[in-house]
Write a structure and sequence with these properties.
single chain, about 290 residues, alpha/beta, seven-stranded mixed sheet, 12 helices, globular
Length: about 290
């Protein structure tokens, strides 16, 4: 891969997935895309670039999916799920007592472990949610990982990563060497393909948004743009959950951190935000595509 091809791929990936690669990540592209090129019967990355430049839709999709990180596991990082059980849900249940309806969005649902972890938390609340309408929307850029999430079938290794044994026995059925999430739990989740750089207003508003471990791959302007649009999709008393390495601080005033609850944020009153001077460099550009 020559420097011109690398620069083309950097721009292509940023425009199509939000992935912001530094100048020294050529090895990463080669390790991910050379196997893809060979599988497609191409001579190498140069010919793959030619296909992309020609607008081959299948190749475009394959390249984006090959470069997208789908690392995830059940109850990943534990703390956000403790917050969900002990802080978020008690507040939401109290605030929605009249409506008895809750909407949750996993904005980078990957192969399904995060939304299924949330569904298990909700099921374990038992009588507290009897008669409530619960809607979980799980979105991801990759159609391939969404298909896996819909099937809810995981290897022994995958279910051993973070999933308590009592939950495995309660919510999964073993078939040979794999485990499948039970139908009742699968029915709680709607899986949809979505690019976070596209408009997502059609999803409606949510009480809780999990957007973890995806914004770390985006540049500052893209993060600001997404945060500002997320603020329009969350209820005024809702919750935003970010990954441990992510924050809104220094990027936007649309959300505020909750003290002593790492990764947990509340939306600010839009009137208060409008009255504040803009953050330096915080004018969002119009993003073209992307998100995971």
């Amino acid at each position: 891969m020559n420097p011109t091809e690398y620069e083309y791929l950097r721009k292509f990936l940023k425009d199509n997935s939000g992935l912001d690669l530094s100048a020294d990540k050529q090895y990463l592209i080669e390790s991910r895309l050379l196997p893809l090129a060979r599988k497609a019967g191409l001579s190498g990355i140069g010919e793959l670039v030619q296909k992309l430049q020609g607008g081959a839709r299948t190749v475009i999709t394959d390249v984006v999916e090959a470069m997208t990180t789908n690392e995830t596991f059940f109850f990943r990082d534990k703390v956000p799920f403790d917050h969900f059980r002990d802080h978020i849900m008690p507040e939401i249940i109290k605030a929605r007592a009249a409506k008895r309806s809750i909407r949750i969005w996993c904005a980078a649902g990957s192969t399904g472990q995060e939304p299924y972890s949330l569904a298990m938390c909700l099921k374990d609340m038992g009588a507290a949610l009897t008669g409530w309408r619960i809607e979980i929307i799980a979105t991801d850029l990759s159609q391939e990982v969404l298909e896996k999430a819909k099937a809810g079938i995981y290897s022994q290794f995958e279910v051993q990563r973070g999933l308590p044994i009592q939950m495995l026995m309660k919510y999964f059925k073993q078939t040979g060497e794999t485990w499948q999430v039970n139908p009742e739990l699968r029915a709680m989740i709607q899986h949809r393909q979505l690019n976070l750089l596209h408009d997502f207003a059609q999803l409606g508003t949510f009480d809780v948004i999990f957007c973890r471990n995806v914004l770390i791959y985006f540049d500052q302007d893209t993060k600001i743009n997404i945060f500002n649009r997320l603020a329009r999709q969350i209820e005024p008393d809702g919750f935003l959950v970010l990954g441990a390495a992510e924050t809104v601080v220094g990027l936007t005033d649309t959300f505020r951190p909750i003290p002593e609850r790492r990764g947990l944020y509340k939306p600010n009153d839009p009137r208060a935000v409008a009255a504040k001077p803009a953050l330096a460099g915080a004018t969002p550009r119009l993003a073209v595509m992307a998100g995971r």
